[in-house]
Every structure is written in structure tokens, then in C-alpha cells.
Amino acid sequence: MTISIVPLAGDKYFAALDVPAQKVSRMATEVTVRGDSVLLTIPGVGSSYNARYDATRRELNGVWNQSGVVSALVLRYFPMPTAQGTGTRLAPPYREEEVMFNNPVARLNLSGTLTVPAGPGPFPAVVLVSDLGAQDRDGTVGDYHLMGSLADYLTRRGVAVLRYDDRGVGQSGGSIATATTAMLVSDVQAAINFLRSRLEINIARIGAVGHGEGANVALLAAAQPLPPAFVVSLAGYGLTGEQTLLQQQVGTQKAKNVNPTVVQAAYERQRTMYDIIRLTSPVQAQSIVSNMLRQDQPDLGPEAAQKAAAELLTPWQRYFLSFDPVEELNQVHCPVLLLSGTNDLEAPAELHQTALEKELKSSNRYTTAKRLNGVNHLFQPPKTEWTLMNGEMRPLFSPVAQETIRAWMMGLGKK
Asked: How much is the pTM?
């Protein structure tokens, strides 16, 4: 048995019990600490553990009480794995498999990880779809792993999860710069078909969970033949690509308390640049955008300006600027959960989720929308709720968001 204990801010703790042999996974555990006395209470199985901490031996020595049966028990300390993957890694109570699946439309292979709960199944399953840019299968941002954290949480609770490296990342073929948002739909379809080929997966309960642009890609897949059984949108975009990128620029500058006049001038300048990219030929746009960049940054040399302009003129960028995420939502008929955080500065819920919700609910009565207090675009809770590891606060996926996703998904299977 393993009891994972993570210190939180305010002298509080997150704790969970795992007993793989009894198929007990991440069972909620309450922690009370007074000096060297530690009380662990597990309401789910009516158990408690009263012990003293031996700092020299780094172990808890005490008594386990369950249904009136009292047993002596020693729990020894082992470090939890760090965000960088060093330290001792406890084997998770589920199966992990490195996989490669083919996208016949794009003629490329994608690499990923499939995690499957213990037991024969068949299990409900989800495909995780990443946000803008080239992302690895874990959705790594510094010490934070959005996709990896969500996959672990769901698999421990009975859901198989397939997460994969974006095109051009890891062992995946292709290039994300040349793939438009619409083209990425075939990646999701290939991932879903791969899951349909697996005996341990329930074919009727395969969904897609997308973050940011990945949410829009998942919704586009739901508007096609052979759609996923359901879609979870995490901070999906509801405005056009151009509006989204401009709003992100304004939001970033306002957060830095930039003078409003400067913010407005930068907005107008960037909008003009985006219009040139959208409405002129690539050759013309390359020349004009390069010139604009050099005027804005006099120290920028000709070659550097040409390179920066080329990065703004990729097929993905040109397509995304004109992309309207609500255009095909009337073709989505599967259950949809729209989740956003009230602290999201990159896709504010009042702009993006409101637009998605309005369009979806006009044609899909299976739409549910929720806004999570204090959660940001990366689905992290307020910093006061982050984990404390090695004296530093480390980000984590919002526990409220994780449980909201799981509960909604499992609720679909009971209808």
C-alpha cells in the first residue's frame, strides 16, 4: 500500500491511498499533524492510522484501525517523482504502453502513450488534444505537465487515455507549422480509430478532450462522420483566430500595466499586419511584414526580419487568422462539456466560452458549460493551492477541474 502525501500552502495536505492488489486507487485521505503525531483518516474504507514520525528513520510507526481490527503498521518514506522525472518513481496502478498509430489522410505516424486501467475492461477512453504550437504528449510547460497530469488522474479512475506528440515532436512525423487547424482533425480521427481497434476499449464510449485550439479541433472532429462519443472543451476558443491573437496581445500588455494609448496603438498595428497576412499573397505579405517589423524594431537586421516574417506566414498562421470556431458547431450532436477558468487571460470565458456555449446550445441540447473559480488557461488553481515540493511551490492541474471532467464523463455512461 502507498499513501501519497503532498504539502500544500497554509499547513494543509493533499493525500491519497493506493492499494493496487485491492484495486484501490487515489482514495481520499485526511491528514492531521501535531508535532510528531500523525493521524491519517480514510473515510472511504472506514479506516484510520495513528502514528508517530521518526525523523531519523524517516518512517511512520503506528496502529492501523479498520472496522475494529487493529494492526501494527510501519510506513517508510520514499520520495515522490519530481517534475523532471528524477527520483524514485512508484509504478502507477495501471498499464502504460508506448504506441505508434497511423494517420492515412496525412500519410504520417504519430507517437504517444496509452494508459489503461487495471483489469480486462472494456473501458471508456479519451484522446487528449493539445493547444497552439508544437506540444509534446504531456503538454509540458516548464515543470508543469497538463496532459500528463490529466491522463494519470483519469486512468486511475477507470478511463483509458491516449495522449500523443504533435506533428514534428518526438517520434511523430510531419510539421505543426504546415498543418492547419482543419488538417489536425485527421490526427484526432486517427487516434480515435486506433482506440477503436483495441479490445480493452469500449468502442461506444471514446471521447476527445481538447485544450485551447485542441478543443476546437476536437469539436471539428465531432462535426465529421464517425465522431467521438463526447467532447470536453478546456478553454476552447470562441472568437476568430485573428480576434483571439489580438485579444491575447492586449491581455498580456494590460497585465503588465502598459499605458492604454500604447496598448491601442500596438493593437491597431498588429491588426493591420494580420490583415495583410490574410488578404495578400505570401510573396507580397513576406515583403510588407518584414518591412513593418524593421520599422517597429530599428535594430532588427534584414535577415532577422525576413526570418521573423516567415514565422508569421506559416500555413497554420494564415489559416488560423481566418478560422471561425463556431462555424460548424451546428453539426455537433454529441454531448459536450465546456470548461473555462475565471482567471484565464488567454481565452477569457466571457468572450470565448460564451460564444461557444451560445452557438452549441442553439442546436445541441447535450451541452453543459461551467466556469471554475480561480483557474487559469493552463487549468492551474490559484497559487495558494499549488503543491509545496523541496521548499518551492509547484503548479498542479486543478483538482476541481479534474473531478468535474471525470464526474461528467462517468455520468454520460449512466444515461
From this structure: 0.78
